[in-house]
Write a structure and sequence with these properties.
single chain; about 325 residues; alpha+beta; Jelly Rolls; 5-stranded antiparallel beta sheet; globular
């Protein structure tokens, strides 16, 4: 694994590959200190990878998500963020209630509440740019114009931006000696900013009246409701919270997340149990305590569901706690 210090706030460029089989650990590896929590939706061991290049005032990286997840929390403070999807038809992603792709990008200013959903084996690219650099390159109104919406239409330039980011990451990975050549790295940074400049004048928040967008927005609102209710809700309560029938909500969840509202709620509780067990004092905490606190009344069924999702028993997670 190649790894050099990253130039998040200035200094020499750096490159890093970061891998993880742990959900919480993977989020801690994200550049820019995202304050997020993750809910794993697909069974099996979580395994993901990041490829990151840091320039002065600009960080680019590629996420390779191993498992379908819902991620909720705050975007990194002190950065503007733009994100697109490498292969949206193979592994879709939604951001704050709308699909993201090679044309429609996610965007946010630092410290905003956001949530997104990724499918198994999703791959996305992210650009973090200092607001001062954005204003310097694109004008004083760029920060406001680009992020007053969380969904931006970059047109055909968005697809080019994704390709340029992937190309830069691959080139530095294969030729790490380029990090020691300031002129080449400065040119690479300039090329990235030039392509981003082509994107910004084209953005448009209108994504069309496609029914899929409507259902993505519906699921987004329910995900927010479940988080605010601290998982203390039910399928009927989820439907009532967004003003639709249970059947309508189930159709939306099946289309967007390939699951049901009830299954999603159970998955959020299982993920909550995993987080609690991973951070518990094993001398004073039992698996039964955690399970009961999260509404699981049958220990055997809880243990089986937990192992089916995470590939280990809840007692194994607790035992690893130092």
């Amino acid at each position: 694994m190649k790894d050099t210090p990253l130039a998040f706030r200035g200094g020499s460029p750096g490159f890093s590959i970061r891998e993880s089989t742990d959900l919480d650990h993977y989020l801690s590896l994200q550049p820019g200190d995202w304050d997020m929590k993750i809910t794993q939706l697909a069974g099996g061991t979580f395994s993901s990878q990041l490829r990151i290049v840091g320039f002065e005032g600009l960080v680019i990286y590629q996420n390779l998500w191993g498992k379908a997840c819902v991620v909720q929390g705050q975007s990194p403070k002190g950065w503007m963020m733009f994100g697109g999807i490498v292969n949206p038809h193979e592994a879709p992603v939604s951001w704050c209630g709308a699909p993201v792709g090679r044309r429609h990008f996610a965007a946010t200013a630092g410290g905003e509440e956001v949530d997104f959903w990724v499918a198994d084996n999703s791959s996305d690219i992210v650009l973090l740019i200092e607001p001062s650099l954005l204003r310097q390159i694109f004008g004083d109104t760029a920060e406001y114009d680009a992020t007053r919406r969380k969904h931006l239409d970059f047109g055909n330039a968005g697809s080019k931006l994704i390709d340029v980011v992937i190309s830069a990451l691959k080139k530095i990975e294969s030729e790490p000696e380029l990090l020691q050549r300031p002129a080449i790295m400065a040119q690479m940074r300039s090329n990235l900013l030039r392509v981003l400049e082509d994107c910004l004048p084209t953005f448009d928040s209108h994504l069309g009246a496609d029914i899929n967008c409507t259902r993505v927005e519906l699921v987004h609102r329910v995900v927010q409701h479940v988080a605010q209710a601290n998982n203390r809700t039910c399928a009927l309560g989820m439907a009532q919270a967004v003003g639709v029938s249970q059947k309508t909500l189930e159709m939306a969840f099946r289309e967007v997340m390939d699951t049901t509202p009830g299954k999603y709620l159970m998955l959020t509780r299982l993920n909550g149990a995993r987080h609690a067990l991973a951070h518990a004092d094993k001398e004073s905490t039992t698996v039964t305590d955690v399970a009961m606190d999260l509404g699981f009344t049958h220990p055997g069924r809880f243990s089986k569901a937990y192992k089916d999702l995470f590939g280990e028993l809840p007692s194994d997670t607790l035992a690893r706690r130092a």
